[in-house]
Amino acid sequence: MRFREGKIALNADIREMFPQIKIIERDRDAQRFLWRDTPNEPIRTFRMSSMIFGAASSPFTAIYVKNKNALEWQETYPDAARAIVYDHYMDDCITSLDDVCDAAKLAADIYTIHSRAGFEMRGWTSNDPLALSLLPKESLLEATTIKDVDIDLGRLATPVRTLGLIWQPAHDVIGFNTGVKKEAGLPDKFTKREVLVHVMRIYDPLGILAPIVVRGRIMFEDAWRKGLDWDQELPQGDCAAWKLWYQDLISISSLRIPRRYNLSDLEVVNCELHLFSDARPDFLLSSDWPAEPRIDISGLGREEYKPSALVHLITESDLPIPVSANPNRFSSWMRMSQLDSFKEDFLRIKNREPLPRSSRLFKLSPFVDESDQLRMSSRIVATTAVTEELKRPLILDGKHQAVRLLIARYHEKAAHANKALVINELHQRFWIIGLRNAVRSVALNCQLCKLRRSRTFQPPMGDLPEARLAHHQRPFSYVGLDYFGPVHVTVGRRQEKRYVALYTCLVIRAIHLEVVHSLTTDAAIMCLRRFAARRGTPTEIWSDNGTAFVGTRRELQALYGDSVEDYAANESVNWRFIPPAAPFMGGAWERLIRSVKNALEVTLPLF
User: Fold this and answer.
1) What was the pLDDT predicted at 594?
2) What would the pLDDT profile of 533-559 be if each residue is shown by its tens digit?
3) Are 439 and 419 in contact (CB under 8 A)?
4) Per-residue pLDDT band at 142 (split at 50, 70, 90)
């Protein structure tokens, strides 16, 4: 839009913007690719040293580098730096000014700033040749000699594509390319596939073609609702409407509008942007807010509509009783929900006729008050110091969308917590049929409640290792080992520390306990020898890296050092360690340690 504000327009782009940006060495591995010239050659691995097309991060990185370079020169070239940050769209520069001298200086400064970062600005075009007088010849769109000017300036006669639009600098007008050529004629067959191609082909960032574009989308929506196949021909009536739409597209190709907003020479003091939107009923009635119900209320009479002072929504509708989405007119929404849910019962009550037994209001003693709202008679009418709404609550249907919004409001006031509190608060003013189910449904569909009830995903457990599944093997062939303690034992008149080594068969989960005198390598070897003498030499031993042991890191490293591994290798034992900081992989023996400790706490009071 800023491109259409000034009298002098400028347009250019950065030559090969992405390849000009180099990737630092440590990040180039993210751009590895495999390559070979012929199928017979071996596959080689390469890395792209520059930014590549197709990467999701490339546009953001390119814009960041462009803006960072501009901000570094902001003090020297403030106007050009601002134009680079705000008037560049990726690699395209598109801006406008009112003075030709300012435009020429701005173009030269932009060219200078970009050149400091290795960016080459090319294809400079303007509707005034003097705006390009300070730029190098090779940077212009196409060199042609202008009379009375001794330099080559950008070509003005050829149309230029500017962010999807067609700009003719010579006449300073904007055109459109709809993709429909006059000589090609109309399509032979109108199908959903054919019309969608042309509807989506129109690019109109300024919204100038909105009357035609929106009409085409509405017509395609109608064709979609009819359930036709993609290549099935549209009905004859629709084809006639599409022919008119295609003729409008053909006429758009010759449409030219001025690029500049202000065609007069008046000085612009202030610019304002005003937006107008379509407020047709068929758009509004498809929103999430409960639509104005289309019901037949013949016989009820036509009431005078008194508009509120606060207007939130203005609609044009042929409904008998217009309704506004003004939250201050809450009673109107409740009355419309009653008419929508209990239309026949309302007419019967209004005409003083009895209700049938099949009516949902038969047991509620309903009546119509002076505001033409359905209320329920109760047995506490004679009570004092309570509100009339509590004595005679409004009758509502819990399945109506407007009532659901009401329940959602009370649900939010209750901090998304107690359903009983919501039901009690609603009972103070309303009698809602199916209230409990409605409150439960609103709570289940509440997005905040869904997030609070959600649980983190538990990944499936992995497969057991082979050592846990070695059937038909001698017990304790595959062993898990861990220490626990220290345990205080009495030696004479003194107490000493001892540790307990737990060996568990990974297949049948049997356990063997050995007392270890200290956290030394020799004590660990002697413990293993005693275990092997009693249960046989194991084929494989699993243990952790010492994080579960009591003691210092140096002592634990000595316990599971080279000496233990050498001894195990000599005895044909494969000693395997689980990864560090992964105690869950040793759950087979960790859980048994807990069981043994529980048993010892009962049998040994001093444990």
Assistant:
1) 92
2) 999 989 898 988 764 333 333 443 454
3) yes
4) low
Q: Residue 25: helix, strand or coil by DSSP? A: helix
Enumerate residues 6+ apart whose C-beta is below 8 A from 302: 320, 321
Q: What is the mean pLDDT of the chain?
A: 79
DSSP 8-state symbol, 113: H
Residue 204 φ then ψ, to 5°: -135, 75
Contact 159, 174 (CB under 8 A): no
Q: What is the DSSP letter of 22?
A: B
Cα gap 442→435, rounded to integer Å: 10
Helix (H) or strand (E) holding 323, with range, is none
Cα angle 272, 273, 276; round to 5: 140
Which amino acid is residue 218, in one-letter code? I
Closest CA to 528 of 570, 492, 577: 570
How many residues are listed for the chain in this entry? Answer: 607
Burial of 358 (0-12, 13-18, 19+ CB in 10 A): exposed
Contacts for 146 with CB less than 8 Å, ≥ 6 apart: 129, 152, 153
SS3 37: coil
Cα separation, 88 vs 59, in Å, equals: 13
58-72 helix and 100-116 helix, angle to the nearest 10 degrees: 110
Tell me the C-alpha distance between 155 and 141, whole Å. Answer: 6
Contacts of 221 (CB under 8 A, 6+ apart): none
- What is the model's pTM? 0.46
Burial class (CB in 10 A: 0-12, 13-18, 19+), 542: buried
- The C-alpha angle 584, 586, 590, rounded to 5 degrees, equals 95
Q: Are residues 324 and 309 in contact, defined by beta-carbon separation less than 8 angstroms?
A: no
Q: Which residues contact 562 (CB under 8 A, 6 or more apart)?
A: none
